Amino acid sequence: MPWPSRKRDKGAVADKKEPDAKIAKTEETPDKEEEEKSAKPPAGSSKSGWKNWKKTKESDSGGEESKITYCHWLLKSEPESRLEKGVDVKFSIDDLKAQPNQTTFWDGVRNYQARNFLRAMKLGQQAFFYHSNCKEPGIVAIVKIVKEAYPDHTQFDQKDPHYDSSSRKENPKWSMVDVQFVRMTKRFIPLSEIKAHHLAHKADGGPLKNMMLFTRQRLSIQPLTQEEFDFVLSLEEEKPH
């Protein structure tokens, strides 16, 4: 029996709890604008962190700037129970780890931009698994794409909360990918901490200055540049503020 669709993305009002993600991999209601949770970034923010990271990256790459291409992803999923048309759309990282071969399909996306991002995903690319619409949103793990986009079967299932009567099997509107658990991050990286770096980078040109988590926060599937991915990943080595 397939998991309830878990992705989401539709759009929502800012600063509202956005149901989003493996609606929890889903998308009809915007990701809870989880930004609300990070109203005040922790004191101490991040310029020094960015400068130290930049130094390391420059020594590794000869000072060359990364080309702006999206090659990693951030996938939002709801770890807490929430009913969508009578179906609990909860899907946490523990739920993924409990799947056969720690693999599942990322279904239920009903936002066109998020769907297009799904269709752009390539085999083997890595993504952050992000707990959304919960007490403390943030990154908990890394997953990888193990099957590229194919039709999302939930769009044709009348019992599924994400059934779409306007979609036709000969020309499906909605797609999904398969993802597999890679590892937990060394520590939980909260939205509030990422936001502190984003605000500092907006001022000094750091890698998170245009991070979609803050410019298109309602999307449950978001692309990341190599620099964004590397910088966020480097935070797991730091002590939380």
From TrEMBL:
Residues 40-51 have a biased composition (Low complexity). Keywords: Nucleus, Phosphoprotein. It is found in: Nucleus. Its main location: nucleus. SUPFAM superfamilies: PUA domain-like. Residues 72-234 form the EVE domain. Gene3D superfamilies: ph1033 like domains. GO terms for cellular component: nucleus. Residues 10-39, 55-64 have a biased composition (Basic and acidic residues). Signal peptide: none annotated. The keyword Nucleus applies. Residues 1-64 are annotated as: Disordered. Specifically binds 5-hydroxymethylcytosine (5hmC), suggesting that it acts as a specific reader of 5hmC. This is Thymocyte nuclear protein 1. It comes from Anhinga anhinga. The gene is Thyn1.
